[in-house]
Design goal:
By secondary structure, the chain is an alpha+beta fold. About 25% of the residues lie in helices and about 20% in strands. It contains five helices and eight strands, in the order ββββββββααααα. β5 and β6 form a beta hairpin. The protein is globular and about 55 Å long. It starts with 7 loop residues before the first strand and ends in an 18-residue tail after the last helix.
């Protein structure tokens, strides 16, 4: 958590290093189960939309038509895109009382890295905040990054469009994994296939 361009420094000519770990947290428990967090972290423009978790434990929502009862689903609540645990008796398309589910850190970090990549490519932030109140974020959620680049009349290529689109998916389930990002054709020249995160 807390990934931003302000927390990245260059080492040499091709190596970027993240230097601020004040908001870092474990990704998984000892048994390998992904941990979920309930407090947003990082700067607003880099924050993944699912990090805006409602403060109450249970919220009244409409079960998404593509979701199954008893699973985690992303829903629209209070102009945010948060994740909830649907009850076992949820019926798609019908209201239900769902439990707030927090967010997993790895997909949120991928989103933040996607914002960094967007800013390096375009030269400016894509939005002010990842809430439906922000017209640019709302546009990207509905139409995609590629359409935003076209609206801004910026040149784009297939590789970078795909890279950014996959990282900046509003739904963390549809977002690229860290491993998939490292295999992207767009950054292939800069990634060692023997990549190993540095240990302190």
């Amino acid at each position: 958590r807390g990934v931003s361009l302000e927390n990245v420094v260059l080492r040499g000519q091709k190596e970027c290093v993240l230097v601020d770990f004040a908001q870092a947290v474990p990704l998984c428990g000892l048994d390998g189960t992904p941990l979920r967090y309930f407090v947003e972290a990082g700067k607003r423009i880099y924050r993944a939309p699912e990090m805006y978790v409602p403060r109450q434990q249970n919220v009244q929502v409409v079960c998404p038509s593509t979701s199954r009862p008893g699973t985690i689903a992303q829903i629209s609540y209070d102009k945010c895109r948060c994740e909830v645990l649907l009850p076992p008796d949820a019926v798609p398309g019908r209201p239900c009382l769902a439990e707030t589910a927090g967010y997993a850190v790895a997909p949120a970090d991928v989103f933040s890295c996607g914002v960094c990549a967007f800013m390096l490519l375009v030269g400016r932030a894509p939005w002010s905040v990842t809430r439906e109140t922000d017209p640019t974020f709302s546009f990207v959620r509905r139409h995609g990054v590629k359409m935003l680049l076209r609206q801004w009349r910026l040149p784009g290529g297939l590789e970078e469009d795909l890279f950014l689109s996959n990282m900046l998916q509003a739904d963390p389930v549809k977002r690229s994994s860290i491993e998939a990002c490292l295999r992207s054709d767009w950054i292939a020249d800069f990634v060692s296939w023997h990549f190993q995160p540095e240990t302190m």
